[in-house]
Amino acid sequence: MIEAAMLKVIQETGEGVLVLIDNVEADEFHRSRLTRLEVRRLLGAMAETLLSLSDAVQAAMPEIDWGTWRSVQQGLRVASVDSDELCWDAAHSLVPATLSWLRVYRRSEPALFEFKP
């Protein structure tokens, strides 16, 4: 199932974001061009992949904040100070919440995460 592979990408990109911001303060994040760019890239990949999931899979995971992910996707289209703040906020709140819900769904809806030939 393609969605299982997509969910794995979402998990991995989210974990990558969390590794990059671990023990990083906001001012340090804003000064670090490389960290900002990589967090932005990973958030973009995460948003694109999440929003490319089928309607059925999205409906099976109602606690994921789909509307905010759409806003993140749109906000990342333009590089600006506002998009840097968007990245910081998403990395600290939206990503951890999404990964937490994915863990819950992995237990309650394991079929969504199974790779099938």
Keywords:
117 residues, mainly alpha
In short:
The chain is mostly helical. It has six helices and no strands. The longest helix is centred in the C-terminal third of the chain and has 28 residues, at 81-108.
Give an overview of the whole structure:
With 117 residues, the chain is an all-alpha fold. It has one domain (2-112). Helix content is 77%, strand content 0%. The chain contains six helices and no strands. α3 packs across α6 (81-108) and α5 (66-75) runs antiparallel to α6 (81-108). The longest helix has 28 residues, at 81-108. The protein is elongated, with a radius of gyration of 14 Å. It starts with a helix and ends in a 9-residue tail after the last helix. The relative contact order is 0.19. The model has no long low-confidence stretch (mean pLDDT 94).
Please state the CA-atom Rg, rounded to the nearest Å.
14 Å
Q: Which structural category do the helix and sheet elements fall into?
A: mainly alpha
The number of helical segments is 6
Topology as H/E string? HHHHHH
Q: Quote the average pLDDT.
A: 94
* Gross morphology: elongated
Largest sheet, if any? Answer: none
Q: How much helical structure, as a percent, in the residues?
A: over 70%
How many β-strand runs?
Answer: 0
Spans of 5+ residues with little confidence (pLDDT < 50)? Answer: none
Instruction: Note the gap between the termini.
Output: 7 Å
Could you say how many structural domains there are in total? 1
Report the portion of residues in β strands.
under 5%
